[in-house]
Amino acid sequence: MDLLLKKMEEYAKEYRVPIINENGKRVLVSVIGEKKPKKVLEIGTAIGYSALLIAQHSDPEIKILSLELDEQRAEVASSFLSESSYEDKIEIRQGDAAQILNTLTDFYDVIFIDAAKGQYPYYFKQALSLLAKDGVIIADNVLFRGYVESSEKPPRRYKTIVNRLREYIKMATEHPEFETKIHHDGDGLAVSYHRGKNSEET
């Protein structure tokens, strides 16, 4: 497994595919290892690196549904997963996550968001109806190269992304049903723990 992950890291570096970095990886593995989920929804597969990490540290009965917009990346991810012992536990569904999320009816112990940063607020809203009671929502890259917490204006090309990520953090930290911690490891991970109450109880 370690050899496969190393191979994926080298591929990501060579082809400039963004995957979770070493510091963010430690947080993700820690949260997953503590939660031991049986059902996980991942928004943004890339080459399947995070999906494998999650599978490796989850309950042995883990089932992961991973959504990926890019057809080529979905194919590469499937190829890598075929080299692992988790191939039958991870389903990659290629297509627009915004559309696929509307069709899902299952509840997930963990929802991991690592896709289009400008869509994070929308993904959070969708995740609310798909998260199991006491579930966890994890979002990567929420500090986006330091721009999100900086008082300086971001480059124009990143303005929308930074504003949307600020909106995401505000939604996650102020939502009455969640306790959210922003980890500064890596590029920033927001970990939102559901308090286990229905909205009418809060």
Automatic annotation (TrEMBL):
<dbReference type="InterPro" id="IPR043675">
    <property type="entry name" value="TrmR_methyltr"/>
</dbReference>
<dbReference type="GO" id="GO:0030488">
    <property type="term" value="P:tRNA methylation"/>
</dbReference>
<comment type="subunit">
    <text>Homodimer.</text>
</comment>
<keyword id="KW-0479">Metal-binding</keyword>
<feature type="binding site">
    <location>
        <position position="50"/>
    </location>
    <ligand>
        <name>S-adenosyl-L-methionine</name>
    </ligand>
</feature>
<dbReference type="GO" id="GO:0016300">
    <property type="term" value="F:tRNA (uridine) methyltransferase activity"/>
</dbReference>
<dbReference type="Pfam" id="PF01596">
    <property type="entry name" value="Methyltransf_3"/>
</dbReference>
<feature type="binding site">
    <location>
        <position position="114"/>
    </location>
    <ligand>
        <name>S-adenosyl-L-methionine</name>
    </ligand>
</feature>
<feature type="binding site">
    <location>
        <position position="141"/>
    </location>
    <ligand>
        <name>Mg(2+)</name>
    </ligand>
</feature>
<dbReference type="InterPro" id="IPR029063">
    <property type="entry name" value="SAM-dependent_MTases_sf"/>
</dbReference>
<keyword id="KW-0460">Magnesium</keyword>
<keyword id="KW-0949">S-adenosyl-L-methionine</keyword>
<dbReference type="InterPro" id="IPR002935">
    <property type="entry name" value="SAM_O-MeTrfase"/>
</dbReference>
<keyword id="KW-0819">tRNA processing</keyword>
<keyword id="KW-0489">Methyltransferase</keyword>
<feature type="binding site">
    <location>
        <position position="114"/>
    </location>
    <ligand>
        <name>Mg(2+)</name>
    </ligand>
</feature>
<comment type="similarity">
    <text>Belongs to the class I-like SAM-binding methyltransferase superfamily. Cation-dependent O-methyltransferase family.</text>
</comment>
<feature type="binding site">
    <location>
        <position position="140"/>
    </location>
    <ligand>
        <name>Mg(2+)</name>
    </ligand>
</feature>
<comment type="function">
    <text>Catalyzes the methylation of 5-hydroxyuridine (ho5U) to form 5-methoxyuridine (mo5U) at position 34 in tRNAs.</text>
</comment>
<feature type="binding site">
    <location>
        <position position="20"/>
    </location>
    <ligand>
        <name>S-adenosyl-L-methionine</name>
    </ligand>
</feature>
<dbReference type="GO" id="GO:0000287">
    <property type="term" value="F:magnesium ion binding"/>
</dbReference>
<dbReference type="GO" id="GO:0008171">
    <property type="term" value="F:O-methyltransferase activity"/>
</dbReference>
<protein>
    <recommendedName>
        <fullName>tRNA 5-hydroxyuridine methyltransferase</fullName>
        <ecNumber>2.1.1.-</ecNumber>
    </recommendedName>
</protein>
<keyword id="KW-0808">Transferase</keyword>
<feature type="binding site">
    <location>
        <position position="68"/>
    </location>
    <ligand>
        <name>S-adenosyl-L-methionine</name>
    </ligand>
</feature>
<feature type="binding site">
    <location>
        <begin position="96"/>
        <end position="97"/>
    </location>
    <ligand>
        <name>S-adenosyl-L-methionine</name>
    </ligand>
</feature>
